[in-house]
Amino acid sequence: MKIEEVMTPSPATCGPMDNLAQVVERMWDADCGMVPVVDDAGVPLGVITDRDISVATATRDLAPSQIHASDMVRGHLVACRPEEHVKTALHLMAQHRVRRVLVTTEAGVLHGVVSLDDIARVAGRRDAASSADVVATLNAISGPLNR
Q: Is the dihedral of CA 105, 98, 47, 13 positive or negative?
């Protein structure tokens, strides 16, 4: 099963100069816990999760409206292509210990987001990942760090 069959297409996004209050509003409206930060061309620069916002506001002694999305962008992005198999997304999730992976076009433009939940919903269907694959990925994400 291809990633494009289970992903969320055209997800809610924000720009680097949007503040975290605006990002929270987008998350609320889209009923999601992660928003990609994209440039004017739609190329992802990073992601912001609801957890990132909680930690940032609690540790910086600033209101969400005082923190820009660009202040939150860090690390490298984890992305796959829409035509790849869902097992590729599971592998990336396990490897990078994330529950969501960006889906980009060949040109690097954001096309969607695929989550562990998206893949779990179709587990066991013909040509999809198995339930065991989903559980193994969840264990890899949630298990202790191997450092």
A: positive
* Tokens linked to 114: 């695929």
CA distance linking residue 110 with residue 134, whole number of Å: 24
21: left (phi over 0), alpha (psi -120 to 50) or beta: alpha
Distance CA 83, CA 136 (A): 23
Cα 146 to Cα 56: distance, rounded to the nearest angstrom? 26
R_g of the chain computed on alpha carbons: 16
pTM (two decimals): 0.91
Q: Count other C-beta atoms under 10 Å from residue 67's C-beta.
A: 19
Nearest to 81 by CA among 53, 60, 58, 102: 102
Contact 56, 20 (CB under 8 A): yes
Give the pLDDT confidence of 112-125 residue by residue, as tens digits: 999 999 999 999 99
CA dihedral 7, 85, 125, 4 (to 10 degrees): 30
